[in-house]
Design goal:
With 186 residues, this protein is an alpha+beta fold. The protein is built from four helices and eight strands; from the N terminus they run ααβββββαββαβ. The protein has a single domain, classed as L,D-transpeptidase catalytic domain-like, CATH 2.40.440.10. The chain is globular and about 45 Å long.
Length: 186
């Protein structure tokens, strides 16, 4: 699979070109994700009213009313363009859903479930004789990523989920409540 080849290439390049003192954590260090000009972030003082995903930008936004509170770089499914149509198409759905439950012990670092498929999604897939799939989540990296965590950055690698770093997942987990609406745009 192409993804495994890319991971192998990234691992090789990181050992050849990274300074001897650089760790995987150093390679994963990210810039502050606050919007320019935003005040210092206080998680206790914010109420996230919705989540907005713009697939074409590879961004997830935590919103308080119409104000962007936080922004994250995301990875999508291996086949990111278009709405999810059926199980196995590796697309991330588009539309309005709800973040309805969470799993602290998932195969990926924490996960929050997106309420896909909707009744409309099921109806469309069944009309074609297909299973719409499910288990679409916002989650962190695979639990076994270890020192290879840096290789996932900037790639679309999920089966249709929305992925962030583990540190970002901790923050989203804390800030977003079950029942929060999520809109996923192309």
């Amino acid at each position: 699979m192409l993804f495994r080849f890319l991971i192998a290439v990234c691992l090789f390049l990181s050992t050849v070109f990274a300074p001897a003192s650089a760790s995987a954590g150093d390679l994963l260090a990210r810039a502050d994700t606050r919007m320019p000009g935003a005040p210092a972030f206080d998680p206790e003082a914010v109420d996230i009213s919705r989540v907005l995903v713009r697939k074409s930008e590879r961004r997830l936004y935590l919103m308080a009313d119409d104000q962007v509170v936080k922004s994250y770089r995301i990875s999508l499914g291996d086949n990111p363009q278009g709405h999810k149509l059926y199980e196995g198409d590796e697309r991330t759905p588009e539309g309005d859903y709800t973040l309805d439950w969470r799993n602290a012990s998932s195969d990926f670092y924490k996960s929050i479930h997106i309420s896909y498929p909707s009744a409309k999604d099921r109806e469309l897939a069944h009309a074609w004789g297909l299973n719409p799939g499910g288990s679409i989540m916002i989650h962190g990296l695979p639990n076994e990523a270890g020192d290879m965590a840096f290789a996932y950055q900037g790639l679309d690698w999920t089966d249709g989920c929305i992925a962030v770093t583990n540190e970002e997942m901790d923050e989203i987990w804390q800030l977003v409540s079950n029942g929060t609406p999520i809109r996923i745009l192309p």
